[in-house]
Amino acid sequence: MSRNDLSARGLVRRYGGLTAVEDVNMDVPSGQITGLIGPNGAGKSTLFSLLTGVEQPDEGKVLLGQRNITRMSPDARSRRGLVQTFQVPSLFPSLTVADNLLVAAENRRRDYAGDLLGFRARGRSGALQIVDDVLASLRLEDIRESIAGTLPTGALRLVEFARALCARPDVLLLDEPASGLDAAETERFSALVRRIADDGVAILLVDHDVDLVFKVVDRVYAMVGGRVVAEGAPAAVRADPTVRSVYLAQGPLTSKNTGASPAGGPSGGGPPADSPPTGGPPAVAVSSGELR
Amino acid sequence: MTSINLALTAISLGAIAALSGIGVLVTYRTNGVLNFAQGGIATLVAYVFREMVVEWGLPIWLAAVLALAVLSPGIGLLLERLVFRPLARRRASAAESLVASLGVLVLTLGMTAGIWGLGSRGDAPSIFPADTVKIGDTRVGVDALAELAMVAVFCIVLGILGAKTKFGRQVRAVVDDRQLAELSGVPADKVAAAGWALGTTMAGLTGILLAPQFRLTPYGLTLLVLETFAVVVAARLASLPVAVLTALGIAVAQSELKQVTLDGDAGTVLTVLQSNLFIVMLLVLLLVVPRLRELGNGDSGSTGSFSSRGAPPSGPVSRDEARRDVLGKLGGAALLMAPMTFAPADLRSAFMVPALALIFLSLVILTGYSGQLSLGVAGYAGLGSLFTLKLANGDLFGLPAVPGIWAMFIGAIMVAPIGLITGWPAIRRRGLVLALTTFAVGAVVSRFVFEQPDFASGLYVDPLELFGAELGDKAFYLFELFCLGLGLLVVRSLHHGRIGRALLAVRDHSEGAAAVGVDVRSLKLLAFTISSAVAGLGGALLTFSASSFSTDDFAPMQSLLWFTAVVVFGADSAAGAIIAAGFIVAIDVLAPAGSSILAVGILALSLGWLPGGLASAVRGGIAWVARVLADEFVPSAHTTHAAANRLARAGGAVPGMAGAAGATRHGAAGSSGTSGSGGSGGGIRIVLPAGAPRPTPLGETLLVAVANHTARSGLTLEMLPSARAGEADSAERQGLAGPRPHLPGVPVERGA
Lengths: 292, 752
Prior knowledge:
The complex is a heterodimer of chains A (about 290) and B (about 750). By secondary structure, chain A is an alpha/beta fold. Chain A has helices at about 45-50, 75-80, 95-105, 110-115, 125-135, 155-165, 185-200, 210-215, 235-240, 240-245, and strands at about 5-15, 20-30, 35, 60-65, 65-70, 80-85, 170-175, 200-205, 220-225, 225-230. Chain A has ten helices and ten strands. Chain B has three domains: about 5-290, ABC transporter involved in vitamin B12 uptake, BtuC (Orthogonal Bundle); about 350-610, ABC transporter involved in vitamin B12 uptake, BtuC (Orthogonal Bundle); about 635-750, no CATH class. Chain B is about 70% helix and about 0% strand. Chain B has 33 helices and six strands. The longest helix of chain B is centred in the first third of the chain and has 30 residues, at about 60-90. The radius of gyration of chain B is 30 Å and the shape is globular.
């Protein structure tokens, strides 16, 4: 197991009588994109919070490499390389784009006392270098000095992603990264995620846009009712009978855009071989309702 | 006395607390505003009621009807219409509504203090006869029974109203989503107004019932009502019955405590508890109750709406900006030095300014830079003062007496660990809960420390000495400025660089900050710790400038007033904090007591229209005026230095001839406009287009100032094509000031 892999072992999270996450095992290996899908209320978001440290599991553990990080706070996890993005972009609206990124780039160490006493020049040029590199690689130089609160949603997503990259992640957890992006942006975004994974980063992608997930991921987990019901290569999961029955009340799972998802966009690749032709309108019109 | 007897006497207080709690809950459930003004409104109504009965001689029933059926609901309707409806319309955050309600509180306090003074009155009339009735073997006051009956009636009526009627459904719809409710035909404004009217009526009732039981003072009664927030917290902002039961429970427990006597320190604590159980319970409940059922989307932690400035530039700053910055700071410093030239009495009045400014700076650190509400700053300031005096007097833990100046700094540093401890609850708390918690901490400290003779009596303030020489008035003022400078340095190091950005990130979006590795906990604690030390230093200075320690200076109500003032003047502006201090002290010196409270209250209510506070409004206003003036008159915004120089050369050939229209006032304009450029003789000249009306002296000065500024700021901008066209033939026209059809306005000339 590589130093950067994220894995969950036997995670359980209960809210009163409801078990939101039930005995979930999951591996997010480095250099790969792992997908997580599931209908509303399947426990995706809870699992995501358990991985990021926003919530604590009742049972089970979360491992980063060999290290048990189950009880670590989100910021401590982030400093160890586990970085997340949010469903609703979470930029610092009053700061410029560059400052937003700089916050991420310069907070892998904690010694605030040194800064208070005035040794703050140390290491700053390094952080600025990271910010400049990331801005250049995402072609965001034009909005470098824009105030984040004034940007449109598409740009917000991209800047939040850039900010996550500035934290130099080993594992990147993306919560519905494509919602709010138009087709072209989604396309660009998929390519970008692939490039990052190729650099050896472990990526977990949670999204309602099933098309996007199946298109970009190497491996996918499907959750229903708090359990993982299927896992494996996208084609295999797509063919899984449980996944089909949950996702498609009437029609089979297709790569055709349902139209309800703003993130959808026409799918680039052809439909997978095992996908029968569309029989009726698929019932997967989700995404916008989930954005709260 | 038996404990049953005690319990019965307590019922009156408990019932009143319950009524107050019902009022707060009704306002909160219908409007999502935790109404801090409850106490202020109660006090105002109580004073008006007393005025009607005692001074005007109205019969009690008539006065009661006027106060409770006309005045109180009237206040509520007015507040809803003028203050809170605009806020709800633009979906203001809960933090903003909180500040607005603090503004109302400060305003009502200011009115009460302004009209009736800050003194206490013992002749508040009671609406119930002083009779008692016999129940079993005990006699119970009519008032207690009547109050209890009122509580029961209100509970039942509100319960039925909420659960069974159309109105109740409408309330729930409005609370869920006001805009959505309106779209589905619910008269949201009416529902909100009804909630306010009912809430303020309960407030008025609370005030009228409480006043005869205690002496009537503006601060005292207000605080008493605010203490009943314990009841609301126990109800988790939701449940009426829980609120009522808690109110009665606390009141009974408080009176039962009176039976117990203990010796020693425990006895002292007990004595305080016997009259302060409500405020203690407020703090305990806030620490214990897991989560309040807050309305809305839980954004109540967001202070973004009134502190939204970003970080100072992280890159290198242009020389001109740096120069402007330095000039601004020099100007500010000069203003702060001005009192040195005052008459001794006025200088002494000015002593308060740096001290208050330091306290306000501590709030800027906490609220403006790290986004945490704090309504307990007076507690830290008072502790700083107390530690300093104890150290200086040599009776703190048997430590030897320390010279005053060093005692001050040590005292301030000793407040820091207390800030750290009390900041602990703040890690997981935000918004309303944090505001209430800090308020409770401040109030508890005030009750258990400042008001205890053991701690706060026999303190004397010796004049400060430095190297054996006693500090005179001027030297003391300079010393204060030195401390203020220290505070500004601290603020600077917390606002610049990595820490500054990290703190702003926590303020803007703490989850997002945590997600990229910012240690949110440590930074929040750091802000709390440093801010409490700064407040402690300010408090010590405040005591030395008044030459005596007064509990009133650090009363819990002061925290509310100070917090409001800081938000009004721009919570994220260090300059705003200093200006606020100057403003408050100036008004207090020049106008009758209470006027500064009134002024701050009025300004706070304007927050509904000026998001970001006065400072941001002024900043915005200046930027706007400058832009308009620049667009209107100054082509030099599109003129390079070279062009300005060319103009100057051309004009220099015929000095005094340039601009026939402006020529007559040249001398005055030139001399007033060149103060910054230092040029002798030449300077900035205004050339008006032919046929333009001659500007007034003020207008001309303005034009010169703007032109001067743009020329000096060295903006390397290109010329407008139209301006360039004018430039082409300007050489021959320069001396003639002929018509310049293309030029939009006034070209600038610059002396050699």
